[in-house]
Backbone:
């Protein structure tokens, strides 16, 4: 073999394709306006390359499609449930499985069962739906992630780690009796898809056990985290991805899962636990909100496809190519000097809007404006992960605020090619070259919950000329009246 052999290539060939179309620039401008400058409100037909999310947007394998045909659609005791239960036990190791239609349904049931008003949930950074369900059940979330996670330029290889001193301080302040569980996410989404190390998780687990506090694992991207441990944590290079996933799960008591990510399906999730009594209560609760405990809001065929996806996603060649593609895009941007979150994450490349559009202040939603601009430039859809996503404290009504102001370019699994990644990089570089002409936004509609999904914005009337260089300012004045005043 040549020493110049590339480190990864897709371990699949393509059997079915879906055509893409692209609106012209005036069409994209009209679509953006209609969507209230929120990429979540665009119609997918108006999108060229869709990097909004990696959730439910994966391409299933031929084996998963074949599995759909053997789904058992029985209301009760479906054979497909038992297939799924076997897969969850084999890969994740938890004893009890409660299927749900997606991750937030598992979060809802878990939060309602474990939280009482006034409780505190420490965790390694919030996730939007997870924190909302904790709050709706009466708890407050406290972030105990290491400080490095909030610095996009810090190259710590495990930025998802828990700061043990912060965790101990929360326990000392509030008392273990007010902490029903510690919420541990793998491959932490909101800070850029950053993994935690097994060394850190072992320490968290030991501390939690000493204090008699459970650990709830958000296992949504556990396989991606396991791959980073395999690559970067001493002692794990020879361990299989499945072994590492199992070691992570064994250090925790239960998990919530959105199977729409790692597990390679378009819909599905679950709650899984080792505790018999908790599982019995969850099985009872799932009947109220989702469906019988042997399907939990899923069709039998969905459970079959998930069972196959759970085993496929721990294949080393698969995960190497999946994360390899994210790195490919990240490196293109790094080489062009674009400010991105480092290290490159596992499920997407995150632009650092604070540095990308440094002339925009946080009140004018820099990351939201940047995501809109990228769509306008090329039809590439990305999303905001900053102050809009952070939302408001339900008690005080104040904006939570966010140290990180990011645009997430999330890569669906097995969907796009390297040429698509090149197109994305070209567009981001183009937008970067003209970044000074990007104006901020004002929010015109704010929904009560998870506002980033449905909020609407309008562009501020003028470019902040005072903050432009004199050459930039001339350009802005010359074409006054237009929002995007870059030269064409
Ligand atoms: O979208 P759901 O309800 O299947 O899953 C909720 C959820 C829970 N935890 C984590 C870490 C997630 O990333 C997550 C969903 N994430 C979405 C939709 C995303 O775009 O990242």
Residues:
């Amino acid at each position: 073999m040549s020493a110049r052999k590339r480190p990864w290539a897709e371990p699949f060939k393509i059997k079915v394709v879906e055509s893409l179309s692209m609106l012209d620039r005036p069409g994209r401008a009209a679509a953006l306006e209609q969507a209230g400058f929120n990429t979540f409100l665009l119609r997918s037909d108006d999108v060229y390359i869709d990097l909004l999310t990696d959730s439910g947007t994966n391409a299933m394998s031929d084996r998963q499609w074949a599995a759909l045909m053997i789904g058992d659609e029985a209301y009760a005791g479906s054979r497909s449930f038992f297939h799924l239960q076997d897969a969850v036990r084999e890969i994740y190791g938890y004893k009890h499985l409660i299927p749900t239609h997606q991750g937030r349904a598992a979060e809802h049931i878990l939060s309602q069962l474990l939280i009482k008003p006034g409780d505190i949930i420490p965790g390694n950074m919030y996730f939007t739906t997870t924190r909302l369900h904790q709050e709706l059940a009466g708890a407050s979330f406290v972030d105990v992630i290491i400080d490095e996670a909030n610095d996009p330029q810090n190259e710590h290889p495990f930025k998802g780690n828990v700061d043990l001193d912060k965790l101990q301080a929360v326990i000392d302040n509030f008392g273990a009796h007010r902490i029903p569980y510690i919420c541990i996410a793998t491959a932490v989404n909101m800070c850029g898809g950053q993994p935690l190390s097994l060394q850190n998780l072992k320490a968290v687990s030991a501390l939690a056990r000493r204090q008699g506090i459970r650990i709830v694992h958000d296992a949504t991207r556990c396989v991606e985290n396991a791959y980073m441990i395999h690559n970067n944590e001493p002692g794990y290079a020879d361990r299989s991805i499945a072994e590492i996933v199992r070691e992570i799960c064994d250090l925790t008591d239960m998990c919530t899962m959105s199977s729409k990510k790692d597990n390679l399906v378009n819909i599905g999730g679950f709650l899984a636990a080792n505790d018999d009594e908790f599982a019995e209560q969850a099985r009872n609760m799932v009947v109220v909100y989702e469906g019988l405990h042997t399907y939990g809001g899923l069709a039998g065929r969905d459970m079959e496809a998930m069972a196959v996806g759970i085993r496929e996603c721990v294949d080393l060649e698969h995960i190497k190519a999946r994360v390899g593609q994210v790195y490919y895009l990240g490196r293109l941007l790094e080489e062009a000097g674009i400010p991105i979150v480092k290290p490159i994450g596992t499920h997407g490349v995150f632009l650092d809007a604070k540095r990308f559009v440094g002339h925009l202040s946080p009140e004018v939603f820099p990351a939201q404006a940047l995501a809109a601009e990228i769509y306008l430039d090329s039809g590439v859809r990305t999303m905001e992960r900053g102050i809009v996503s952070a939302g408001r404290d339900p008690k005080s009504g104040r904006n939570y605020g966010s140290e990180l102001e990011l645009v997430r370019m999330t890569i669906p699994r097995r969907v796009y090619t390297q040429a698509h990644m090149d197109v994305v990089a070209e567009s981001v570089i183009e937008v970067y070259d003209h970044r000074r002409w990007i104006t901020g936004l004002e929010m015109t509609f704010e929904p009560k919950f998870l506002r980033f999904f449905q909020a609407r914005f309008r562009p501020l009337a003028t470019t902040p000329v005072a903050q432009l260089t004199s050459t930039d300012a001339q350009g802005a004045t010359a074409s006054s009246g237009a929002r995007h005043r870059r030269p064409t």
In short: Residues 53, 55, 102-104, 127, 129-130, 185, 189, 218, 220, 258, 260, 269 surround PLI (CB under 6 Å). The chain has 18 helices and 14 strands. Residues 25-47+323-477 form a domain with the Aspartate Aminotransferase, domain 1 fold (CATH 3.90.1150.10). The first strand starts at residue 49 and ends at 50.
